[in-house]
Fold these 3 entries.
Entry 1:
Amino acid sequence: MRVTDILGLPLAALWQQKSRTLMTTLGVVFGSFVLAASLSIGQGIQDTIERESRRGDFLRKIAVSPRWRVAASDLSPEELQVSGEMTDAKRERIRQAIIHHKERFGSSKQHVALTQEKLRELASLEHVENVVPVVWKSGYAIYDQQSQYTAMGSARPEDAACRQRLLAGRFFDSPQESTAVVSELLLYRWGLTDDASVQKVLGKKLRVELRSQWQKSGFILLLNKPNGQETTLEETAAVERVKGQLPTSLEKFDLTPIQLEVLRKNLPTEPPSTAADSLVAEEFTIVGVVREPTDDERSQRHDMLWVETDVILPFQTALNFSFRLPGEGEQGVNQAVVIVDREQHVKEVLQRVKDSGLEGYAFLEFIDQQRLMYLLIFAGMTCVATVALLVAALGIANTMLMSVLERTREIGIMKAVGASNAQLLFIFLVEGAVIGLVGGGLGLLLAWASSYPGDAWVRSMVTRDLKIELKEALFVFPFWLTLTVLLFAVLVTTLAALYPARRAASVDPVAALRHE
Amino acid sequence: MVDASSLMPSGDGMAIRAVGLTKFYGTTAAPVYALHGVSLEVRRGERVALLGKSGSGKSTLLNLLGGLDRPTTGDLRVAGQDLSRLSGRELAHFRSASVGMIFQSFNLIPSRSALENVELPMVFAGQPPSQRRAHARRALEAVGLGPRLHHRPAQLSGGESQRVAIARALVNHPDILLADEPTGNLDSVTAGEVIALIRDHVRNYQTTLILVTHDEELAGACTDRVLRLKDGELLL
């Protein structure tokens, strides 16, 4: 039998039963459409997650922070003693609750701090490319007698997000140079409102003053101004002086002896610190001015090293400066970012970070969770589509069984004029395959056509809800997808045709020729 | 009944040689015999009529000779081939190439035109479309249906339909033509035309003819020998 006849005979038979063929094919079209659409958006979203997360290098970053947990070993036996008549289960619950209470209400301590030494230790780990401490402090930025209360943050010299916001001057050449980059807003607050003043500040000195709020014990004093106004440098200095004099001036207050005693008991025994003790100041050369980030740039805030402060210092300079504050060196920084050489080493490094007693979080983990979540959703959708196709296949099997019954005499005639069992089997299998091919193709076409309005709709939702402008399509139709859907549809319908085809092939020609 | 021992071994000149053919239906415990120990020989080019009442086993024997069915027991050689030893595929090829069958009820595929019906045996034999189309056209023209090539069976009269069936049976120039009451559904005039067509072809091409009929007169007029079947047995 020739190839043209292998196709021609089944096509003629299908054409003969147009309505039935159409209805059967529609089932396959629907199943293939759902399958193609779910695979398409599944792949598209995976691609989008990959693409968006690979902008920059944050998939190679691990955010590291000190661990603030309280363990049972940190508490004294007396603190952990649970007295009273109770069940062992309740005793254990109360014991755990005491530990948890201590953790939440002040008695917690860092097991492992992000000190200079610890940062160096992290940097020496295998596959670690760089360790960038994240320094963020509030203090006063003073330029030409003008002081403003503001925030100081640290940045890497190679920080692309900061570099692209440069209006004038340059960004840092090294992490330890004694320079600063300031924002145009800070210039404005200093009274440097003209455009020309942006260039004028370059090369000039900026003084930054930081005050430590850290103390082992004692008073914390803050000046709360009406309407939430910022405290000026002078006001802060005055408050510091009051705070320094308070421990020695308790007698001047209207206090009972008991109140006086309990306050003194909790005050430090060493001489009261002066304002100068808790203040560090340093001068930096202004080398650049940056503009405020745009909304689009702000969408990158999930980057662990995103900097949006008015004063930016090179990270090593910022670290050294902040560590000059009393207690800061021992307490360490609140966060550092470990940059791993390759994405595939992130999990290994993360585990080592956690093993060293620190908290660690890799964006890659989040991406993996997202991938898994979407994978599960689209696997579910694919299952539904597969079931739809299988239902369509049952319809095909049923229709073709009917067809075999109706064409019994025709099958007998074919056998009488020389058709072999194999040829008849093949004819019916090709009928099934043709339905799969046409149905699968139309389903794919429908999915592709629907992807345009679907893509526009999903895109508008993402823009509206997530403020992210997606540049690429969310529905993708790679070659493998087209091939998979077509092959799957053809496979399912051919398998559905197998039983009817075997029935057709096994028809007894003598009985078939007598069949009415 | 032909004595089996008197039959010559497979030799030249024989189109059909059957020895002790038995065909029964049902179970071995309770068999229903359609044929019982039938032995016969038919020479090449010989025209043989099979006469018998309804249920005598004529059609069963014809189906065995045409390779549509297999005997329960016995040996059967047709057109030089031992049918009991042929595989399904070989048997299909035998039906396509060695025998042509004509049925009382025409057995045309209603959805296909006269030309396509005649082409069918050549389709399964794998002949190229242009070649088989030409053969089918010639076969139909030979039976006087040149102007009706593209008509479907429903658009043809009984006589025309049977002519299409004859064209289909003869298109491959088979060694043996098996006709199962080919005029059973036709009026006498048309029946005469159909028989004339068969007789002419058989004569021109020296085709062996096995004609199953009820009609004694027809059997005597257009065959060389008449064999009678009764209750599945061949009468001498």
Entry 2:
Amino acid sequence: MKIIAFANQKGGVGKTTTAITLAHGLALLGRRVLLVDLDPQGHVAFGLGLEKTPGLYQLICLETPIERVVRFARTNLDILSSDKRTEKVKRQITLSDFRENILDDLLRSTHYDVVLLDMAPSLDVLHINGLVASDWVIIPTRLDALAVDGVKEILLTMGEVAQRGHIFQGYGVLPTFFDRTTRETLVQFKEIVRTFNTRVWPPIPQDTRVREASAYGKTLWEYSPDSPAMTGFTENKMNLGGYRQILERMMEVLNG
Amino acid sequence: MAERKQKYERRQVLDSAVADLLSNMEQKQIEAQLPRREREKKARERIKIQSRREQRATYDLPPTLRQRVKEMAEQERLPASQLVTLALLRFLQDYQGGKVDLADYKQSSHSPRYDWNLSLPEELLSVLSQKQRRRSAPKLLKEDS
């Protein structure tokens, strides 16, 4: 099993959309996937057209067995959803012994091939729990100075977690909402390539279909499988970026 | 003499899609800063390159065959592409007319991608080693005869 977190301390960078799209993509490829929502906003369930439920609260505060709190979302894809009661989970974890490993211990006992964690844009005990559980971290970022600063912040936090003995197998920086017509995009893109080099993954084009898909409670694979966010930019008959290409990168990560 | 320590640097390889996209965006930005005339010229060149892309194909050929086509094109003062187009069309004509039977050349392949390989007979390959026949120039004037 591999656990992959989608994290950026800046909000609105596309963490949830990326997590949902890749989770469903992996499920369509036959992997058994669990998508865990660590954000009290509960947007994972919403994005998949399901009701928000206090799954994480039931798991950690009420100690309900995990197989009873996960919900079927799509074939091969289950979710552990969140709602505002997830705030109580943070208090519960703070009061627990070995508090940083609670999530890791619970998730490692499951039968899934892949567990994806949609992290909240905050730095709290649940966030640290998510990072401690993760083998890999994908950091979606918009190409603006504030979001890029968020990338640096999450890397600092990962550094602190690593200093406590946790080993990350890798991380990738994923540019999202990519609008290649603006000069600022190029400036920021060059900056992150210069800083993170091989860690930069091909970008996801800005695409209004993404917003429409979540409004309908559908994934991009269902709503617009051939939209730019999925297929990327076309240059010289090649597709550059887009979630289909990112899914290939994910498979490389999963296959080691 | 003290041995100089050679410094090795680990090569960083960007994700190919990231590298392509970055280079295209940089190229477009450079073009955007050019004067209008040069911008238009670049745009025309790009359209020309794009339109020719449809006509391009890559095949592996024996180097001697490639060289022979090149020499023939130079001798006849023709574009090599047109010469190859003619050769392929003539081949297709012969193939469709039953003059060429691929079964004569087929040998089973070990490749998972193909069932067959073509084994070219020596007599056909010997065409490449034969000296090129120079066609006599057309007689244009009375004195030529």
Entry 3:
Amino acid sequence: MTGNVGGGTTGGGSPERPRRVYAPDFVTELFRNPLDPGYAEAAARRKARGGESAATRAGGFSARTIVLVAAGFLLAIAYHQTVAAHPQAVQTRNNLVNDVKARQAETDELQKQADDLRDRVSRLRETALAGTDLADLRAQEARVGVARVRGNAAVIRLTDAPTQVDPVTGQASTNLGKVQDRDLQAVCNQLWHDGAEAIAINGQRLTSTSTIRTAGETILVDFRPILSPYEVDAIGPGDLDKRFSGSATGQLFRELVTDYHMQLSVSHRNNVTLPAAADPQLHYATAVSSPSPSRPPSSPASPVPSSSKGR
Amino acid sequence: MMFAVLALIAGVVLGVVFEPSVPLALQPYLPIAVVAALDAVFGGIRARLDGIFDDKQFVISFVSNVLVAALIVYLGDQLGVGSQLSTGVVVVLGVRIFGNVAAIRRRLFRA
């Protein structure tokens, strides 16, 4: 009963061979004869004894039935366990995703509300204020960044270098051409220096209290995450893009492009509208109600100070 | 043979109907126990086809398979090599199941 079964590849030569003393190869034995020898032994015993009593047969039958029911039961439990455990993880994840989406929708809604209210405030102010005061206020707002502005802009577009994958190990090497927060800070500072009057990064307008920071792998502008490609729009003098390209910062970025494959494009675009930033909430500073503003309102070409660019 | 299949199906139905929750402490043993049970069942089917099926042998092989498999996993967990030992048990039982299924296939289809 032992020779005719097995993996087939091990060959059937062993029965003819004389028995050796060394221990049988366990794995080969396993492949050749997977059945417990117990069945064959039991059959031989039964044959020797010659038949069984009816009681033994009935007992065996019920025991066999119980074991088979138990086996089926085990299978069902295991299946249930696997299937039941799986959706739990998926469900948790889905809940989290839904949570995030709901919160995003909520913030969008609130943002829209804030925009609407700001529009209403400015409209009410327009009706309340006289002509020169209004123009004054508008100019001030535009300068600090809480009003929309329009003008000709230089557009600087920075894109992360593509991730280099090692052809041998298939692992991504550290990407040195990834745009960092300090790259954007350098660009903004250079633009302010070159006479920019309003700057927005990926549609996020910068104010005097704006920050450009990194959290983990993401760059945050005013605590809002922005993603590559980064587009810095700066309204300023007509040759702002050329000034930027000619500056030391422009030179530095050209080197980053050649050395680390960061992508950079500097262009000029007419009639760009930059959005308003959210009203900076002042919690600690209060306005000094002096009669004379520190800056004469009749100098619209003066660049906005860039003292706190989030370093 | 027919009755055995019916008993197996009855067990599955029972499991589906009652949907018992497995205690957390027993959960690591469940997959190994299932593989061990499958090994015993396929061994029984093959013995049946060979004409040497024996009730006592079947019952004992089933119970001891499940218990020994659980014991090995338990020991492995205590020794810190639980996953490796589980893999070992699955490989050995898997080879046995394959061998038995191959024998069953040869007997049924002569191929």
